């Protein structure tokens, strides 16, 4: 009887060739960050409800929307979790690098529903974890840049 064990050699993947891991996933494995995990869970659930409320506002408006759930997609930015962008509204849920806290970045550009959406953003948990952030060139240009390179399957018309 042999005491040796056979195992398959798997070379290590060089660090710079590894796909980036999503920040929100790594926060789930940090036992000392239970409060961060709970805050992230609440914000994520509230964000999904907010998207549904906004979709009902835009219903039958004919506006094109880029919506992409990137929580499990490591091919893009490791901090972005979910994007909902039109030519007059930007909502991106991100998980920052250092403390792994989720944040909602938003902006408006002549949005017909801005007052109502701002009211919703004043509610908890958005009131403590949302930041207005204008992309370079404004929302309309940002939306056009996304439209130029993203697959059409991520665009819907409401």
List the keywords.
about 160 residues; alpha+beta; 6 strands; about 20% strand; globular
List the helices and strands and how they pair.
Elements: H1 23-28, H2 34-58, E1 64-69, E2 80-85, E3 89-95, E4 102-108, H3 114-121, H4 126-129, E5 130-132, H5 139-149, E6 155-157
Describe what this molecule looks like in 3D.
By secondary structure, the protein is of the alpha+beta class. It has one domain. Strands 5-4-3-2-1-6 form a 6-stranded mixed sheet, sandwiched between helices.
User: Overall 3D geometry?
Assistant: globular
Q: What is the H/E order? A: HHEEEEHHEHE
Number of self-contained structural domains: 1
Give the percentage of residues in beta strands. 15-25%
The largest sheet, given as strand count, sense and whether it forms a barrel, is:
6 strands, mixed
Report strand order across the widest sheet: 5-4-3-2-1-6
| Number of H/I helices | 5
Structural class: alpha+beta
Oligomer: single chain
DSSP strand tally: 6
Mean pLDDT: 82
Radius of gyration, rounded?
19 Å
N/C terminus separation: 69 Å
Show unreliable segments.
none
**What is the share of helical residues?**
25-40%
Short description:
34% of the residues lie in helices and 20% in strands. It has 158 residues and is of the alpha+beta class.
